Amino acid sequence: MRRLLQEGAGVVARRAGLACAAAASAVFAIPAMAAAQAPPAGGQKLVPIPIVLPQPVFEGTPRNLRVPNLEKPRYKAREPFLAPEGVRNVARRKPVVGSETTPVIGELSMLTDGDRSGEEGSYVELGPGRQHVTVDLGAPHEVYAVVFWHFHNSPRVYFDVVVQIADDPGFTKNVRTLMNNDHDNTSRLGAGQDMNYIETSEGRLVDGKGAIARYVRFYSNGNNANELNHYVEVEVFGRPSR
Q1: Domain with 113 in it: what CATH number?
Q2: pTM, whole model, 2 decimals?
Q3: End-to-end CA distance of the chain
Q4: What is the number of domains present in the chain?
Q5: 20 to 30 Å CA-CA from 208: which of 36, 38, 117, 179?
């Protein structure tokens, strides 16, 4: 995706200077993914999953975001996501590993500590290029939804965002892709059909459709402000596999 935007030196400077139009009454939010809803579970009672959102850090509609295939903004809260009763965040305090063992900023353990805010000191920074972080749920789980936050203190678009689940830590067994917006296959994980989106305090919600997996991996490949990768929090809403 970055190949579409980088044309010679100085590209970072041209991308800098994101501005927010003032909006006194409407908080900018990203659209929920299409069909982002767990399927009926054999007559089980479905209830909203307990997503706790941080306070919004910016308001209004960002301008000058020259990013292709970008979702249009909406001006209302995301609809509740329903899943079987008893589903919870099974990633809390679970171990996290990354493509870089020592982040530039922060510790990988911060990604499952419950801090979703966009404040300084709440995010992990990995270097440029394709990077990823992986959560080990400890045992196979039914995964109904995945919610994750990149840096959202200002309106940014992270590139080549891919979410995968698998049965093994090396992601060689039963790998399934839940989201992929890498349209030109820059990250060599296959071309995706999902749209680019602007980071907000709502994070990104991806439907897991009740798939069974132990490991959840999150990829990115820089952002429209710089080539670095930032992660704030990852949550996996599910329950132990029966």
Answers
A1: 2.60.120.260
A2: 0.83
A3: 39
A4: 1
A5: 117
